[in-house]
Design goal:
The protein is of the alpha/beta class. 43% of the residues lie in helices and 15% in strands. The strands form 2 sheets. The protein has a 7-stranded mixed sheet. A 5-stranded antiparallel sheet has the order 1-5-4-3-2. Helix 6 packs across helix 7. It is elongated and about 95 Å long.
Length: 439
């Protein structure tokens, strides 16, 4: 009776462990593990060895282990998936799929490792805890469906941002990239932007790619003009700061541009990076990807190597002195200080906006009292030269007329002037990751 009782105990234990496995991993995984166990047993019987014995023991443990979970590599291998985007891109892509139905599968490994699999698409990605947040460390799909999946991901990215444009920036802690709405600089109608947009419209209509470098002193509105040109041409763009080129792996960056397929690329502060060999690679990449228009802004093109500024790299190099009369008048009108036009007509737009802001907040007298201070700052920033549409010219300090208190009119409430959200110059570049730049 002892052998029979012992056999019953083993069977009871076997059944309990098997049921625990089913509860933990589900019928499908349990049956898969059981089939693998039978296969390993056959291998061991046909060819007994240390290796086949170890495989048999491991397969047995998988069947009876209550908390068994696969590793990420084993999981995607079982699905037949392959990695279709670089891990640095994956972190930027996954948030755009937030509304898709999914299943979460716990995985073996440290840091709360788990897989996320979409129910309606052959897509899965790996999440692990890094730097106190979930980081995407793998994005895989069926190789037969890779192109269709990438097209769907591209569609979902632009659906997320709507008609807005995209800024690409690097997150050094997890070596990943992030996509955000580019709202740090706003578009502003101007004669200079309209004229350049009309020139570029002809090239675009013929399908001829174009690369344009706008250069000029800080604050003249180069970045604002680029945004307005893209708006006039109906093009969505992707923007990044040139300093982050060194943080971008070239192959992965090319993959990201191919995934996004923006109609235009905008790069601010193109003359700011010292390592210019990578700028050449970037320009060649944009030409290979058939970007319709590539824009770059710079304060001083003399800092760029000759190889960077030849036709084929930059087809047009435009000196940008000012946005023009209509932009200045519009900025003043929104703040209710149109009477100051003659005082500020030749100023860079960022200083015009600062004057309008002061006028609206601290009042007419205090704003006008600051004209000399702002004028001196312009002279220092531009080495004593001003900016008009016809080119640079000397700017004399503004003489502020003395007014009696009786001359002041009661100030009315006025609307906010056109400016970017972070208080930086509306006419030029602002860094989404740090202090606003003055380019």
């Amino acid at each position: 009776m002892a052998p029979v009782a012992l056999t019953r105990a083993y069977l009871r234990d076997f059944s309990l462990r098997l049921w625990n496995n089913v509860e933990s991993n589900g019928w499908k995984d349990t049956l898969t593990s059981a089939v693998a166990l039978v296969d390993k047993a056959k291998e061991f019987r046909a060819s007994p060895s240390l290796l086949t014995g170890a495989n048999l023991v491991f397969s047995t443990a998988k069947v009876f282990a209550r908390d068994y979970k696969p590793y990420w590599d084993d999981y995607i291998a079982e699905l037949g998936f392959v990695e279709i985007v670089d891990r640095r891109i994956a972190g930027a892509v996954v948030p755009c799929l937030a509304d898709d139905a999914r299943d979460v599968i716990p995985l073996s490994g440290a840091n709360g490792s788990h897989a996320v699999r979409l129910r309606e698409w052959p897509v899965a990605w790996h999440l692990a805890r890094e730097f106190r947040q979930d980081a995407v460390t793998g994005f895989s799909a069926s190789p037969d469906e890779a192109e269709r999946v990438l097209a769907y991901v591209r569609e979902r990215i632009w659906q997320r941002f709507g008609t807005a444009n995209v800024v690409i920036h690097c997150r050094p802690k997890d070596a990943g990239w992030k996509l955000d709405i580019d709202d740090t600089v706003v578009a502003m109608p101007s004669a200079a932007a309209t004229a350049l947009a009309e020139d570029l419209r002809g090239y675009s209509a013929l399908g001829v790619p174009r690369s344009v470098l706008l250069w000029g002193p800080p604050g003249t509105g180069k970045s604002t003009a680029v945004r307005e040109i893209c708006h006039l041409l109906g093009m969505r763009y992707a923007r990044f700061r040139v300093e982050q080129l060194l943080d971008f792996d070239p192959d992965a960056f090319a993959q990201l541009i191919e995934l996004l397929r923006p109609e235009a690329i905008v790069v601010d502060d193109f003359d700011r990076v010292g390592f210019q060999a990578q700028l050449l690679e970037t320009l060649e990449l944009f030409h290979r990807k058939n970007i319709r228009i590539f824009f770059a802004t710079a304060n001083d093109p003399e800092r760029l190597e000759p190889a960077l500024v030849r036709p084929g790299r930059f087809d047009q190099i435009e000196e940008f002195a000012a946005l023009g009369e209509d932009a200045v008048r519009n900025a003043l009108r929104l703040a209710g200080c149109e009477d100051a036009y003659e005082d500020v007509r030749d100023w860079p737009i960022v200083y015009v906006l600062e004057f309008a802001r002061r006028y609206r907040v601290v009042g007419r007298e205090r704003a006008r009292a600051s004209l000399e201070e702002l004028s001196a700052r312009i002279a220092k920033a531009t080495r004593g030269r001003g900016h008009t549409l016809d080119g640079p010219g000397p700017v004399a300090p503004v003489a502020v007329p003395h007014r009696s208190p009786d001359d002041d009119d009661d100030e009315d409430d006025v609307g906010a002037e056109s400016r970017d959200d972070d208080g930086d110059e509306a006419g030029d570049d602002a860094d989404e990751d740090g202090p606003p730049s003055q380019s």
